[in-house]
Amino acid sequence: MDIIFxxxxxxxxxxQKIEPEKIDRMLRAAMQAPSAxxxxxxxxxxxxxxxxxxxxxxxxxxxxxxxxxxxxxVVLERQTLKYPPLVxxxxxxxxxxxMLQATEDGLGxxxxxxxxxxxxxxxxxxxxxxxxxxxPYGVVSIGYPEDENANHFVDRYDETRVHYNKY
Length: 167
Known about the structure:
This protein is α+β, with helices and mostly antiparallel strands.
């Protein structure tokens, strides 16, 4: 459980490439996430091409770390779903699993969100020529942290946000 407490958003990476087995573990962890009715609404685009990472960084002003990343993973939402209102929860669990596995493997990550119907969604959909049945949900920037202590514990517990039996 230390991984949960130690994971941080890491924006500076070394030049080291990520081993294929680590990429496989991240994707397997992502696909182990719970989903409503086991709908498994996810698909992924794995990007290790530097030119593509540079271009993808233009999807958001917060994505400027992507050109320095070894890898980017675009998390996609399939539109053919049993329980569409719950897809955000499903995909959130999927991305969290992916990032926790990355942390376990000594990698750093940043989750870059995409909101429904915004210019980020349109940019990514157009860049990857996505079919109508697939929407971009988010991008995860991944690499070996430049700072070897980047993933470290920060106590975020706040007892004032915990309520028992009533608000």
